[in-house]
Write a structure and sequence with these properties.
single chain; 314 residues; alpha/beta; Rossmann fold; seven-stranded parallel beta sheet; 11 helices; 12 strands; elongated
Amino acid sequence: MKLVIIEPLGVEKEKLLTMAKDALGDRVEIVYHDTRVTDTDELIARGRDADIIAVSNLPLNEQVIRGCANLKMLAVAFTGVDHIAMDACREKGVTVCNCAGYSTAAVADLVFGMLICLYRNVIPCDERCRQGGTKDGLIGFELEGKKFGVVGTGAIGLQVARIANAFGCEVLAYSRTVKNVEGVKYVDLDTLLSTCDIVSLHTPLTDQTRGLIGKEQLAKMKKNAVLINTSRGPVVDEEALAQALNDGVIAGACVDVFKEEPPLDPSKPLLSAKNILVTPHVGFATKEALVKRAVIVFDNIVAFLDGKPQNVVG
């Protein structure tokens, strides 16, 4: 069997290959590519003889999947698989396994890092201080006592809810599956949007969640509300969000994900909107999370080789 690591996985090459060797031994031949390419022909060339491909968030279209004739398994070093041509995988009988759970702490950390930066004007305060200024006009807000809405209560959503509780927030949640979680009150989406001071999105990207937050939903939010999106970009209508911020429909936003992967076009309306803090899809990207992710990737491959695939999606 041949394993092709088709792009870098965020762990130093030597460390990653050592981890692979420790987990897989001599059960597979490993080919490692230390550059990221998006050209379809080049990706097919890299994966043509692969039985297993390990990939992060590099898009693999149907031509790539069909062009990799020997492909039996995709080890996706990511939680979402919306960048993978899943229909082609199903047609070819390719097993797709993801790495759910690796970035739970990392993404939750970023949610509150961004929110506190926005609430306490951390970036403007830094600039003002360096310019010899004072706090005038930069008085912020506290988290304690705020109504905190969590949309999607998977592992990350629940971690965010726990942290929000620790900050003294009242936590409301909306999710396809209602869970019995201490300190979390489940409500419908309209109720959450209209009553919460903070709304944090943690849903996967599906046909049902694409465009979940648009002009109509933003209009239901409080004027002092902050929207946080660290889930998937298309869950939010970016143009509607930019307009809502500029018109004062809501007070602010923290956004780590977009319709397309960074680098972004600087003319993108969202980037010049008022009261928004943006980051280039770094929610998952901590040293610890990337190592956790690699461990899960190789565990998934071992399970597949043993005939007991785990973390199977689609």
